[in-house]
């Protein structure tokens, strides 16, 4: 099971700068800690940043949320719920910050994949036990958030990712470690921790390419293992949906995921097929 030595954080980051948590996210987090959350107050906080509010509404109106037309932050809160809107805020804030680097990468495909993976993780959490839809969504969104930061720092990072996808016998992150002395799971873990995500999500981000961690004897909390297994399924579904020819991680981890959930491989294939049908239906409804 991967672990972080707190004394080695600067060494592990290798000069990668973790963006500070925005003030508005801290304000929203404090508001959500109240026993009686004020939805008007939450709406006002989000609407203070016009670009943020617009970004939240754009995602809320996407096929990922059923293609329903949401006209305002107030309406999004009513239709989608506070936790879902909070996750959309995080989504947009991460996009804004990571797109504003000195050498912003072309990230449209990355964010499409991240948004779909987060939504599919939440969809799967309703079918398989072990975590909530909201936690699954947050993890799905953040699990690769270290990649854009490494892409901004290293001009050849895309080439290393291609090599990691094609390398058998090693974990994805081991290929990154060999190239840079760090990897996107470590950077993502530190990013998520600085932004105040739960320990369960942070540990899942750190370990999401380490499928040995799905063994109950490995010592990870069950919910963290659930997130790692859900992510493996979600990535398989999203790759098929977006016509991405990449099944290396699926082949490395599917047996461990079957064992963890106590399901046969055919059961997982059936879940994948069902999710693909639902995604296609959502896309068709949006296009109609």
TrEMBL record:
Residues 18-211 form the HDOD domain. It holds the Pfam family HDOD. SUPFAM superfamilies: HD-domain/PDEase-like. This is HDOD domain-containing protein. It comes from Oryzomicrobium terrae.
